[in-house]
Amino acid sequence: MILENNRYLLSGGIDPLELCSKYDCPLYVYDSAIMERQYKRINDAFNVKNLKLNYACKALTNINVLKVFNELGAGLDTVSIQEVKLGLKAGFAPQDIIYTPNCVSLEEISLAVAEGVKINIDNTSILEQFGQAHPDVPVCIRVNPHIMAGGNSKTSVGHIDSKFGISFHQMPLAHRIVEATGLTVEGLHMHTGSGILDAEVFLRGAEILFNIASEFPDLDYIDFGSGFKVPYKEGDIATDIEDLGEKISDRFNTFCEEYGRDLTLMFEPGKYLVSEAGFFFVKVNVIKQTTSTIFAGIDSGLNHLIRPMFYNAYHEIVNVSKPTGKPRFYTVVGYICETDTFGTNRRISEIHEGEILCIEHAGAYCSSMASNYNSRYRPAEVMIYKGKDYLIRKRETMEDLLRNQVEVPVFVKEKVES
Question: Strand 327-333 and strand 341-349: pairing?
Fold first, then answer.
């Protein structure tokens, strides 16, 4: 959002207060212009012959968001058969979807095979089963590089004790499985974590992948995952995409010369593409002062946005109703019967009951992790596209909560005739 003439505005000059009046609160709003900006920036950062950016759709799976990235020319990174099907429904070609599950059954992987998407396997047990069931289907192998990286232990997925990927020390076993089953390995994949700042982390992983890649003669692509850090508050540090792009491109181009042909360099950004594009608007229900704290209690909670409670993540919070009011310190909390704190002792323009707050950077892993905890409805979602607002998810109702519940007939009391 930009602050102009004492009011916040979204892309195309859209007033968020008008959106809240039109669609009610709580409300997720996504700005497609920011998604396009982020996609173009990362796309321009790499100087290689073949580059493919696969949007990691677990960050935000609304089908209209998927359509935006399909329109931009992205591929799709998926982690479940349901995400695969969403991608196909959004118009992605099967060959532009890569399926990278973890700890799923061979039966689910076979469903993805039937859809014609790229298959990425991250353990030797499934690799062996897959090779026997689908020996003619090319695969990608996810490598665990034993690199501890990322901004949170829950999202660091490339360390030695991670459940993700095949250890690079297990490559001799992977080779034996490939040779025994006749599989073709078309790609290698690595993902070390989320919130990574240093290009050197990617370069360390790159050297491991390049060494492994030289032993697989039929590769078409190498996928370096993602994990680029975005700034969650003013003055926050972020991944220097241009520096990363220059260093990775130089090393990748050198490897392709050594390998003997041009491969495709892949990345799978999620948070980087949609985090800054998301805004979560909430209404203040109550201002409550205790002996030491002023609470601003809002009409939402961890059921709608769990990142601050689950990851201890920081999200900037602003008073949209009164952008230039006198600042005071508030602890912003939700309406769930847990300690669902969005921000502690935040300096925010003076808040009154009924005013609208915005929780920023709400595009990635916010709505997609929402639930019906406390039997609360999930919010509506709106997209701003080319200067216009569109409802892209209806607000839930009581009917939605009951839709799949089945009332057992034994609880129906029979009428007793007098």
Answer: antiparallel
CA separation for the pair 335, 167 (Å, rounded): 44
Going by C-alpha positions, the residue among 300, 273, 295, 288 that lies closest to residue 365 is: 273
Phi, psi of 36 (to 5 degrees): -65, -40
238 with 102, same domain: the answer is: yes
In angstroms, rounded to a whole number, what is the distance separating the alpha carbons of residues 172 and 185?
Answer: 14
Cα separation of 326 and 162, whole Å?
Answer: 48
158 and 293 in a single domain? The answer is no
**Amino acid identity at 71:** E
Q: Report whether 19 contacts 1 (CB < 8 A).
A: no
- In angstroms, the Cα distances linking 154 to 80, 104, 147, 158 are 19, 19, 14, 11
Looking at 13-90, which runs of residues are DSSP E strands? 27-31, 51-56, 75-78
Choose the final residue of a domain: 269, 294, 324.
Answer: 269
Supply the residues annotated as catalytic: 337
pLDDT at 148 exceeding the cut of 70? no
The pair of three-digit structure tokens given for residue 338, joined into one six-digit string: 């847990």
Give the SS3 label for residue 212.
Answer: helix
Containing domain of residue 82, as a range?
Answer: 46-269
Under DSSP, the state recorded for 375 is: G
Strand partners of residue 118: 98
Q: How many CB atoms lie within 10 A of CB 283?
A: 18
The DSSP letter of residue 110 is H
This model's pTM is above 0.85 = yes
To the nearest 10°, report the CA torsion of 64, 66, 70, 76.
-170
Same domain? 68 vs 163: yes
User: What percent helix, strand, coil does the chain show, rounded to 5?
Assistant: 35, 25, 40
Using one digit for the tens of pLDDT, what is the confidence trace for 34-82?
999 999 999 999 999 999 999 999 999 999 999 999 999 999 999 999 9
d(CA 118, CA 345): 47
Q: Identify whether 325 is part of a domain.
A: yes
Q: Are residues 382 and 256 in the same domain?
A: no
CATH number for the domain spanning 291: value is 2.40.37.10
7 or 416, which is more confident: 7
